[in-house]
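I am writing to request your help with a piece of structural work I have in hand. Here, with my thanks, is the record as I have it:
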Amino acid sequence: EITVLGKAQEFFQICDLEGKGFVTRQDMQRLHPELPLSLEELEKVFITLDADGNGSLTPKEFITGFSEFWKQIALRNDMVQPSEGETACPVRYEETMSGDEDEEFQFSNLMDRLGATKVLDDETDVKQLWLQLRKEEPHLLSNFEEFLARIFSQLQEADNEKNELECALKKKIAAYDEEIQHLYEEMEQQIKKEKEQFLLKDTERFQCHSQELEHKLRSKEQELEQLVQKQKRLEHQCTQLLSGKEETKVENTKLKLTNQELQRDLERTSHELSLAQQQLQVLQEEASRLHEEKEL
């Protein structure tokens, strides 16, 4: 038994040189030099071992099925070539095994053929029922096996449908996540764009206000310069009038009146000049503050 299993494992490794974990029809052809079988016979062996018909053999399917096949070949060779001094006697494979081992092998082969290992975690209950029918009601065993085949087929279909639904759900979740990520990126871009526009508008408004204040400051400076020039002219006229000692009394009176008027103008101008200086100081302070804010 150990030798047969070892041989089956060796054949599986010969077929699966790439280490895929399963064997296909093309991989099966690699046993042609190792076995006295034609390519057509190897194809039939593959179809026999491929109970679920999925086009590939798992290590369990290959080793279990090929072990039985190899034992039959070995028994057939023993029957054709008996040992020296013995008479060739046909011995059936089933007769070389005990009853329990035969039942165990047949049940395991049945479960592999039906694909029960993919849908059942525990085969104990099914095995007990199968053994009971085999012993007590053997004529119902085929019906029971057909029933199991239908049940496992439906379970396999349900499992496949569940896998397809899970795959579809995962795709939908991935698509939803991708859409959410896309929307999030678009929202970030929109926020960034609006922020840049807001900063640009705020900067433009600040520059416009600063230019307006600078224009007002220049205007007040010009007015102040004009008042200073006027004051200088008035002072010069007063100086000329006061220095004229040889002018007549009428002219002195006129000069006094003119001087008084000029004094009033001077006082008014001084008052305006003082107000203008105060306004200029306020404007200079505001311009300085705006300049500091602009630099920040």
User: Anything to note?
Assistant: Residues 1-74 form a domain with the Recoverin; domain 1 fold (CATH 1.10.238.10). The helical segments are 2-15, 25-28, 39-49, 59-80, 99-114, 124-136, 141-243, 249-295.
